[in-house]
Hints:
Blueprint: H1 4-14, H2 16-21, E1 23-28, H3 34-40, E2 46-51, E3 55-61, E4 64-78, H4 84-113, E5 118-120, E6 126-128, E7 137-149
Parallel strand pairs: 1-2
Antiparallel strand pairs: 2-4, 3-4, 4-7, 5-7, 6-7
Amino acid sequence: MFDFHTHLESLVERNRLAQDKGFVFGTCTGINGLEAMMEHFSTQSHFVLLDDITAGETFYQSGAWFRRRTFTVFVLARYDFDNEAQRMEGLNLCRELSRQLQSHFVLDRSEYQTQDVDFKVEAMPSSEIAQFFGNGLTGLYFMLSIDEPLNLCYDETEWD
């Protein structure tokens, strides 16, 4: 199974904008887990977080079974709570880094197809986070689905 966590962490570490602005990579458990995670990183101001819970499905297509996992990536920036200009600057920074990550996923699709990993780049839904979320935290999240072949052949040795 493709290790998206390690892949995304590597992209964040290698991206020039992420490096220049001091983005740190981490994980969280859903949008409700963001505030607890932010306390853990209290000295940082820019984040790329991978939700450690994925949605998924098993499906049959063109004579084969596949597993689709959908990952949620948060791109976030802190700002002074009453500073609207700083909030917009942070949001625009998050938008741009998201665009750059998504552009790499388009490249990844070609590279990883030979390994039977299909980045579903035709649709990467996103949503910006409300202005007052997290008392001085702005940004967005986007989702990416990845399909991989799945062996569902019945194996009698797995059963009593």
